From TrEMBL:
Stored CDD domains: DD_CrRSP4-like
Name of this chain's protein: RSH4A protein
Source species: Thalassarche chlororhynchos (Atlantic yellow-nosed albatross)
Keyword Membrane: no
Keywords: Cell projection, Cilium, Cytoplasm, Cytoskeleton
Subcellular localization(s) per the UniProt record: Cytoplasm, Cytoskeleton, Cilium axoneme
GO cellular component: radial spoke
Pfam families for the chain: Radial_spoke
Keyword Transferase tagged: no
Name of the gene: Rsph4a
Amino acid sequence: EHGPYQPHEPGYGLYQPGYSPYDDQIPDPRSRMLAIQNAKAYLLKSSTTSGLNLYDHLANMLTKILDEQPTNAVDIIENISKDVKWAQFQKKTDTLRDEHEILPTFEAAEKRKALFLKANGEGDEELEDEIGETPLPNVMETAFYFEQAGIGLSKDESYHIFLALKKLISVQPIQTCRFWGKILGLEMNYIIAEVQYHEGEEEEETEEEEVIEEGGKGMGEVEDEDEKKEKEEEPPKSTYKPPPVIPKEENGTGANKYVYFVCNEPGKPWVKLPPVTPAQIVCARKIKKFFTGRLDAPVVSFPPFPGNEANYLRAQIARISAGTQISPIGFYQFAEEEGDEEEEGGGGRDTYEENPDFQPLSVAEMVGSLSTWVHHGQSILNQGRCVWFNPFQKSEEEEEEDEEEDKAEEPDELQQEIGPPLLTPLSEDEGIQNIPAWTAQPSTNLIPQYAVAILQSNRWPGAYAFASGKKFDNIYFGWGHKYSPENHIPALPPPVQAEYPSGPEIAETRDPTLEEELAFKAAREEALAAAEEEEDEEDVVEDDEEEEDD
């Protein structure tokens, strides 16, 4: 036991009232309270980052420790501090109504829910489709073959596309349908379906467009009579004639042979792309733009693209299809009736049919030589069309109207463009510097007897084709851009026009001086005075002659 503390010991005077070991440091109670308030104010200072203050944080930590009383609290003090901070930012639950967060998977399931619903009476139609032919392609079978080479989408997405194509066929009068591929975008992607309408269905749409155009012309004829009078008083106009516009190919032919529908995700509505024009294809070759996923987005480029992203997407689809739609040699053949018509058009045959006597080659032969594959899609000429069009060729009525014009103004005759004919072997495709146009390989080297022949386009990265027996197909997964060994360089704007040559006939005259103006006025007054004198003399002479006559 310890006796009373001595004055020299540290514990002396602790139990005496009004005594503190810090009395010698802060003897004044007012100063002591001021120091405590300053310390508390410092601890209550809020953080500029989290908005918390140390005083409340320490109080919450001590409360949590005293309530839970964990073992070895000093060892887990850092974790307790993190837990207290984390509790400040947790969402407080409402006791009246629970708030459920909508997960992205739930939103995606809601969008695709309509794909799994059957319409009334659809079960009976399915039985009829099994008996007859259906335009619905077997997307899952095609995905299986491409999956052998590690190409394609996930099984879930492939099946959703399968159901989306089924919905498209049930709404549109489609004769043939094919899953063309998927073009990637910066914001959203494009899932593309290639279809052909039944005969007569597409023509109705074109007839409606022509009726609208004719109606517009009829309304304009009434206004032309009123405008003729105004034009007579107008100053002369420029005689410049812009180059003739190359018309687009008719629906069902050339670059517009197929109709394309796109959607961003399976379950969203399908949107029909407009027909492509030669001007859009020619301009698409000169630019390189990433897709956004919005069909109405503008295409800002140089040269200016004539249309929005829907037109640019359609032009890229036409270019990719023309260069990558291939099939095993012998699968397609020309019809016998077109044998005599080959030389008439100048561009070769443009139709083909399936060969009923086709005998498939082995996978080793399909992979060993590119001459065993052929293009069954028409190539696009530099003009932007598959079949060349002479813009200066006039009809008989136009020739009679233009007989009076000078022959010197007639343009020179253009040389007709002729592209490679249909069913041209891939071995004739030009390479890209030292890179071949195509790469052929089997899907596996470990089990060659069950391998699938796979072809990959090096000119259009993302274009693939497979062949297994009598089955083959083409597909595209990529950004929609053509490969170029060098970086893309946009076309430069045309040079600035030269100034008009300056000469004395267009030079501005200098302003006259004061002396010159006075001299000019004096000369003009003298001339007027002389003219008046002459008039007076003539009047006098006339008066004299009249008097003599009298």
